[in-house]
Amino acid sequence: MKTECFFQRFFGMDEKSLRRKWSFRINGQKQVLIKRAEEKSTHVLMKIFLAKLYHPFYKDIKIEVKYSKEKRYKPDLLALSPTGEALFWGECGEVGEDKIISLIQKYRDTHLCFSKWAIKPNHFEGIIDKALAQLKKKRSAPIDFINFQEEHKAYIEDDGEVGIEKAELYRKRWH
To answer: What DSSP character marks residue 169?
Structure first.
């Protein structure tokens, strides 16, 4: 993959001097993400990577939108059914144990995906296991955990096209 130009533009400088608008392409379609000043560059990357990975299953997946039926939490990624129910909810980076447990319990019919950047997954997977053990009613939708690594930055081409695939990742699924 040709990544030198892309990462010289974005990662060859310190976090504070990174451009605010980042342009990516998913299957040839342009996606512009806004990097907030307090946001880590890896958080932006996880959002675009998840959008790429789940786009084949949720064509209308959106990044950084509110879910009108949720008062407390905002997803990093969201896909809705025609009736407005959450089909997919993606969380990237820092997410507290209370939020994980709440989402797993409240959105039993929603495909949840949690992603982290270069962590040892045992502790995080344990939180999900604990939340599932506390469920009073069974979930009908899966839960995924994806652990991205530094080398995954190489899956962004010079033109911003995102080429990452699930087979190239550490991923665990709970049914």
So the answer is: S
Q: From the CB of residue 58, how many other CB atoms can be counted at a distance below 10 Å?
A: 18
Name the strand (E) or helix (H) holding 64. none
Q: At what angle do helices 122-133 and 97-106 cross, to 10 degrees?
A: 40
Question: In the 8-state DSSP scheme, what is residue 140?
Answer: S
Greatest Cα pair distance, the chain, in angstroms, is 51
What's the pLDDT tens digit per position in 121-156?
A: 999 999 999 999 999 889 999 999 999 999 999 899
Phi, psi (deg, nearest 5) at residue 32: -110, 125
From the list 77, 98, 65, 73, the residue with the least C-alpha distance to 26 is: 77
Round to whole Å and give the CA distance between 11 and 17.
10
pTM of the model: 0.87
What count of Cα atoms within 13 Å lies in the side-chain half-sphere of residue 172?
14
| Paired strand residues for 112 | 89, 143
At 140, list the tokens. 């009908």
State in Å, rounded, how far the first CA of the chain is from the last one.
34
Q: What is the DSSP letter of 45?
A: H
